[in-house]
Task: structure prediction
Amino acid sequence: MLSLLADRQVYGFDLVRQLAEVDGLVISEGTIYPLLSRLRRDGWVSTSWMESPAGPPRRYYTLTPAGRAALHAFVLEWRRFRDAVDYVLAKETR
Amino acid sequence: MTASPPNPLVEDYLTRLAAAASILPADQRAELLAGIREHIDAARAAAGDTGGEAAVRSLLDRLGDPAEIVAAAIEPPGSHGSLRPAASGLGPAGAGRETAAVTLLAVGALPGLLAAAAGLDVVLAILLALLGWTSGAVLLWTSAWWRPNEKLLGTLVVPGGLGLLVVMALLPVQQCVIVDNLDGTAGVETCTGSTLPPAVSIPLAAVLLIAPLAVAVVLLIRAQNRRHQAVAVIR
Result:
């Protein structure tokens, strides 16, 4: 979720649809909203209202510097974990 | 985008969501309801409002059961977000296991040693003390939250945790007895136990007190930081 926000501001609805398209991540789209709310309370994500071309203003989500740092730390940790698993699996199938 | 006309299915869904969300704090509840309502409006607008009932049904299906959405909003008390074990593979939710490991390493040996001081059979007391500390060590080594060098640190500094300090305090103080010979001449002085000079014993006691506590704090902070990092993607 944080990585989808890494490059730009994202409108909540688009973010949820993008996550739903990634196979195996999300069961029900509605559960994304509580998670976004939690990320916002933790200070990793900020929200802003922006006018939409027509209709009510939309809520956009952006990564904060703290969220960016958390994402960076996680990516490093995840790669280490993935490499370790790949290494062990490769040894087993050899 | 124009606001979609009210739809009975949508209103019913939002009513059920509001009811389920009544257990949440008011601000979280309002934010959740607003977010979901906005999502539904955007989805209906994107679909051009052409699909009618079937499209609305499929939209609400994709959103999921209100109870499930509210469950995702509930944070376990005392934790900074929850880990889902099935998704993370990194052990049970909460920091209970890591806290237990660090606590047992630091003070797990104490009950056995205090029992020894209170008169329990020494062999039994030592076994009890070993069991307490070893349980902590096993939890430490089986946890996925620490790296091998940290596990080594937790094991070697200090084996027995604060137990070693207690052992030092319990060791018999040097006692010397002079038994006079029967003929009244001064006898030989015999001493039991051993005493370290204060220049050694005081710094040693300080190290035995501070080192295990410092290592415990370091281990807990490392585990907590990693947990926070991991929570990011699981959410």
